[in-house]
Amino acid sequence: MRLDRFLANLPCYNRQQVRLLLVQRRVRVDGQVVADPLHDVREFSRVEVDEQLHQAGRPLRYLMLHKPAGCVSATHDPQHRTVLDLLPEALREDLHIAGRLDFNTTGLMILTNDGQWSRRLTQPATKLPKVYRVETEDEIGEHYLGKFAEGFYFAFEDLTTQPARLEILGPREARLEIVEGRYHQVKRMFGHFQNKVTGLHRERMGSIVLDPALAPGEYRPLTPAEIASI
Ligand code: URA
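A: This is the predicted complex of the input protein with uracil.
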């Protein structure tokens, strides 16, 4: 059904109010602002005006998975097992990954079908801390601390990384908090010191902490409090 007709059929708006709502960009369909009165609204579309939900659309799903090593952060891969293969088929449909991890990186992975919510989790602008435990081939020196706080220049993207917090836990072990998720970011940061990352594990994204009860490969739904924290 056309969006303007859908809205005018609700008891709360007449046709003139609907026109105004659209022009004022107060209507969202599936999380995106829509101003086009002809936009097609389906049974599974989510329709909101300001903060009011008029049609819930498909149920939103939010999962935490303990990603094991040796699996790809993708929904399909011709060669390797993907993180979606770890979920029962009935749960997989329309899920996407909020913050990929490399093939051998382990730890907290969040999957959802709520695009608006997952953008808050991954967009550098929201500056949500992501915390990793890092193991390296060579010793981590005290002189690393200043460089992580100052930022690293990434020529490919032509940017300097946001200040990051490094806590040295042992000669070859550290905890690192970053607020972005650039391609291979942690490995490239340690690469600046020619120090190879040999183990990488994501412990936390914002206030969502990997549940210690989850063994590698296991998952659980996020709690309402975890969802609301983002
Ligand atoms: N940084 C990396 O280099 N790899 C990851 O998997 C995550 C962050």
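Residues 43 and 57 are 7 Å apart (CA to CA). The chain is about 20% helix and 30% strand.
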